[in-house]
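User: I'll paste a sequence; please echo it back and then give the predicted structure.

Assistant: Echoing your sequence first, then the prediction.
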Amino acid sequence: MSNQPANNTFVAEIKSLLNHARSSVYQAINTTMTQTYWEIGKRIIVEEQHGKTRAEYGKGLIKNLSDELGREFGKGFSVDNLENMRKFYLAYPISETVSRKSQLSWSHYIFLTRISNKDERDFYELESTQNSWTLRELKRQFDSGLFERLRLSTDQSAVKQLSKQGQIIQTANDLIKDPYILEFVGLPEQASYSESELEQKLIDKLEHFLLELGKGFTFVSRQKRITIDEKHFKVDLVFYNRF
């Protein structure tokens, strides 16, 4: 009896079942691990602080715990990792995250706990979940200042909405949220400008200013964004002199 080639649809269905099972297992492991790390962070806080700050005792506690867990459970329980669990609980003290069975990885949460602004942290968490952002994409969106740009382009009452609902796309204009204030170039406030008109006005202003500085100056950036330890700073004006 000769072997018959498998039906393409049949094979595709089997592959789909296996991929779904693999995804479900990964999600279950990720959820359990996240919940466990949250519980460990909670126990550390309760044990080391009892509601109060006891820095020296806390350091010794985490070091001893790291040694004990390392001997029995191997890698993954370094002092730094236990500190991350501690920070995770402090950032999400009401288990609001673990109860919703978030799809985010532990690495996502390590990054999110470094964002001190709760509204901003909630926004990036929700956007990451809804859009299935990888950790790399989350970092890219954070470094681009998505939350800040959206906040600047909406009224203050919308900030809370951003943290609860993420970015709401209702019209094509909602995809681009970069506000422009153009009075300084002599253009009146209006919904749109011709590209050539805006370009000319900006060049005129830059040319005049650079000539005032002297020879060899070139303009690099204004409000240059730099990120240090997950915190954003801005350099007002950046120039370069070729001499």
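The CA atoms of residues 208 and 241 lie 16 Å apart. Residues 183-241 form one domain.
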